[in-house]
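Researcher: Please predict.
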Amino acid sequence: MIQLETAVIRRHLPMGADYRLLEMDAPRICQLVQPGQFIHLLIPQQAGLTLRRPFSVFRSEGGRLSVLYKLVGVGTEAMQALKEGEGVSLMGPLGNGFPSATAGAFPVLVGGGYGVAPLYFLARNLKDKGHLFVGAATSADLLCLDDFRELGWTVTVATQDGSVGVTGLVTVALDAWLADKGTGRSLEFFACGPNGMLKAVGDRAIGLGCKGWLSLDRHMGCGAGACLACVQKVRKTGEETWARVCKDGPIFEAQEVVWDEPEVRENKP
């Protein structure tokens, strides 16, 4: 059930130069939210914006909910002004969330930048520990890696500038691991990041005959499936149709997604 809740900000911390962690008391939403779901936050009115903005849930525990965000525009710039003790309007939980992991499958998480946020929530809830692959442009875009390690997950990093870990896109590191340690294993992929990365991970899952769960990101208006601003072409029972990312997703199985947008390309080095 979707809740409309006034959350109270408890912490608002910098996570490097361009990222922030916003932690709020939101007990009603916390009771319901599952990994992969998101909340719609009403941006402070001084930004002059009327539509809410979607944010994946990073952590939900003890009635307290956290999101990670990047400073990318007017809305997130306005969010910086939110102070501890202030109230902010949330709507959620929204979307379908990640499914339960398949019994016996080794979980492989793949994140791009702050796409690690819903993956961390998922990692905290999965019974079996697995391997996290994170890709970023530079070391400054790597977030919360120690949080995954503290959960017992193995972490492999790739940066495009070579400042940390493997040099190149995250699929360089993923492919090396698949060739070495992924052979003959039952794997299950969970991914969140840019479209090119999602397509690449989905292609690998399909090629290996594994499940691949992709968290799609689209511009959203209402967040509840009414405005049809976030549709994605999918394939159901052999036929192509349209799905609402905010309502029918944001999680889709790799074989369902039809990547026909000209800007989506295979994530190759």
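Model: Residues 106-256 form a domain with the Rossmann fold fold (CATH 3.40.50.80).
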